[in-house]
Amino acid sequence: MRISVIGSGYVGIVTGATLAEAGFKITCLDILEEKISDIKRGISPIYEPGLERLIRNGLDSGNLNASTELEKHIANSDVVFVCVGTPSNEDGSIDLQYIESVSKTIGKSIKDSEEDIVVVVKSTVVPLTTEETVQKIILEESGRKRETVGIAMNPEFLREGSAVDDALNPDRIVLGCTDEKSKTALMKIYEGHTCPIMHCDPRTAEMIKYSSNSFLAAKISFVNELANMCDKWNMDFERVAEGMGMDSRISKQFLRAGVGFGGSCFPKDVKALRRAAKNDGLSSEMLDATLSVNEKQPEIVVNMAREMLGELKNKKIAVLGLAFKADTDDIRESRAFNIVEKLKNENAEVIGHDPQATETFAKETGITCTDDLEEALRGVDCVIIQTEWDEYKSIKPEFLCNLMKKPIVIDGRRTFDNGYFTDSDVEYVAIGLGN
Ligand code: UDX
Hints:
Blueprint: E1 2-6, H1 10-21, E2 25-29, H2 33-40, H3 51-61, E3 64-67, H4 70-75, E4 79-82, H5 97-109, E5 117-121, H6 129-142, E6 149-153, H7 163-168, E7 173-177, H8 180-189, E8 197-200, H9 202-232, H10 237-245, H11 266-279, H12 285-309, E9 316-320, H13 335-345, E10 349-353, H14 358-365, E11 368-370, H15 373-377, E12 382-385, H16 390-393, H17 397-403, E13 408-411, E14 427-430
Parallel strand pairs: 1-2, 1-4, 2-3, 4-5, 5-6, 7-8, 9-10, 9-12, 10-11, 12-13, 13-14
Antiparallel strand pairs: 6-7
Bound molecules: uridine-5'-diphosphate-xylopyranose.
């Protein structure tokens, strides 16, 4: 089976490299020369644990190839995965320009061929997009008969930082096929997996993706609201979460309170689903609340800083963790932006620290950033932890006391266990810890 993966961003490169590892002949396609030449040299275009090794394995075995010649490779493929980005428009809806242009390219590429082809949408698109945009454009542009083109929607559920493992060992596979051709091809591609495989139509597959992400985002906002109550009533929300999580219907996952969710998926997907609902006159109160709680959470750590230091003007504050979560260099929608902005509005002097994401964050915000923890901590009045990097978990209280002007730790991610600083001079406050 010859497989092309269009779009060598996050989803595309992980899909391509893991399918190559499983033994398929893969060509990763992108219009950006730089990305393709990186992949060809065994360099991953994104930071993701384990990915570069898979890319190198693929290049060595000859299973993985990369090219900017989209039409040529699409025309020679049995299956094409569409993995291009669907960024947000101002109003929260998704921008379909890349989906539309790739659909046109596919249509053009298969125009003069009689051979069967299967097109699988992996990009996150709102319900009906695969049928009403992708399929429609491909058939119009190619003039091909519907029976010769298989169309399916197969959402990804990859988490940044563990995307390779998620792709190699998924907990479910959703196949939204419109025809037997695409179903047969996808069953062959995923035959090595033992997890449940769900079959449905494309619109259901699209909705499963949005519903899953919106549910998880809502769960986070819900626990954040509860954690804020625990703060007020002086108890540790982690204990509450422990008790809640024992109910298998609730599950103990995604009960971590903090400064809120960021990243390339949750904020964008909740906004897109809300917009799509609004466009069709449907209410989306749960989605509205999910976003509004999330907007308010970063304020809490800034308020804590003010309570402990008084006026923040000219206070030196280190924000530890700029990536939206640990084990990634991705700063998209990171809560660090909201925290830094609020601190700057109060004329505090801010320094950012991150093991992976300093360059991009400094460029976007103009603040000083460093990957040297000692430099970040030296002489600061307090630290605010935004990302729970392992590097922070092993910080010793004496280290903080020696370097900081005042050893005050405001933990926006419950990085440290309750009691970690008990016998030290460190003043420790955290979201949902009570006082
Ligand atoms: C998410 C989904 O988990 C994944 O299935 C989907 O395919 C893409 O979106 P990702 O954005 O990589 O993955 O990160 P995830 O680990 O889910 O965390 C998202 C955000 O929620 C992070 O900012 C994280 O810090 C926050 N979070 C997560 C919490 O605040 N509390 C939690 O309990 C869990």
